[in-house]
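User: Just a sanity check before I run the rest of the batch. Below are the structure tokens for the first item. I only need the designed sequence back.
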């Protein structure tokens, strides 16, 4: 029995069946009326204008872990060993920032812009064999800071405010609550939730306006909601195995867009769960926190 009966949701609806190997990075951009997400392994960006019901797929030259909005049609692409500032209408590159160029087996994974309009993201071993990942922040002067090393598979973060956020190491099945100071130094880090059930691992996350944490279960087929006391208060089940990331969006910010993956599934599982790898949409009876666009006076675009 959940301790909060006030959260309600609609039945999850598949709004784009794309059979993603590793769907990730779902992002709502309000001034474009669009949801964006990626397939890391297929090196693709998916764009879905929900107002016009128009869909577009963009093929890239590298694996992509996430994308974050800058302005107009310009985005930051979190690629393998590179942050690329790019116009998605013509793929014009405005700036490229190298990330861990000497770690050829690493790639960028999940990322997000914080309330101070700085970019945060994680790196990881692409073969998922080594603890070689780190948490980074790209500040508004385009300076890259390594905040912390020692991550296996970093996911998130999800920001409560500019100094406090949740961050996950999926392989360690642990969600951390972290506080930083004005110099981006970690001054407090505690375990918020440790997954112990079955093979489930916490993956991407989102926060609603009440600071409830919506956590995707990889290999668990559901999204769990936790309050600030780490109490589970609600859950949504989906007809898939691997849920990778969720993001609030829509005109009223009361819809949850959800990416999923087929990675690691066998043929029998895919036949049983054919919507695995799709983008889903769920209506919620409360609003989510909006995600900022990255901002820097150093950019000439």
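Assistant: Here's the designed sequence for the first item:
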């Amino acid at each position: 029995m959940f301790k909060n009966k006030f959260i309600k949701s609609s039945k999850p609806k598949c709004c784009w069946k794309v059979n993603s190997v590793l769907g990730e990075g779902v992002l709502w951009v309000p001034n474009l009326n669009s949801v964006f997400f990626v397939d890391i392994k297929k090196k693709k960006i998916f764009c879905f204008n929900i107002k016009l019901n128009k869909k577009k797929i963009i093929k890239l030259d590298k694996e992509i872990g996430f994308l974050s909005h800058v302005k107009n049609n310009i985005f930051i692409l979190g690629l393998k060993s590179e942050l690329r500032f790019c116009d998605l209408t013509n793929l014009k590159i405005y700036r490229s920032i190298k990330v861990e160029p000497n770690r050829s087996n690493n790639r960028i994974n999940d990322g997000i812009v914080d309330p101070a309009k700085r970019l945060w993201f994680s790196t990881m071993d692409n073969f998922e064999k080594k603890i070689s990942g780190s948490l980074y922040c790209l500040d508004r002067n385009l300076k890259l800071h390594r905040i912390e090393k020692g991550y296996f598979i970093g996911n998130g973060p999800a920001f409560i405010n500019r100094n406090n956020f949740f961050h996950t190491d999926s392989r360690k099945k642990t969600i951390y609550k972290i506080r930083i100071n004005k110099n981006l130094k970690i001054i407090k880090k505690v375990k918020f939730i440790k997954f112990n059930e079955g093979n489930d691992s916490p993956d991407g996350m989102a926060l609603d306006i009440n600071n409830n944490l919506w956590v995707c279960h990889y290999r668990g087929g559901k999204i769990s909601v936790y309050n600030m006391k780490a109490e589970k208060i609600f859950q949504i089940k989906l007809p898939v195995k691997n849920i990778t990331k969720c993001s609030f969006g829509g005109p009223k910010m009361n819809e949850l867009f959800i990416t999923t993956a087929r990675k690691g599934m066998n043929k029998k599982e895919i036949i049983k769960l054919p919507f695995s790898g799709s983008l889903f949409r769920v209506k919620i009876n409360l609003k989510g926190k909006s995600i900022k666009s990255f901002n820097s006076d150093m950019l000439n675009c």
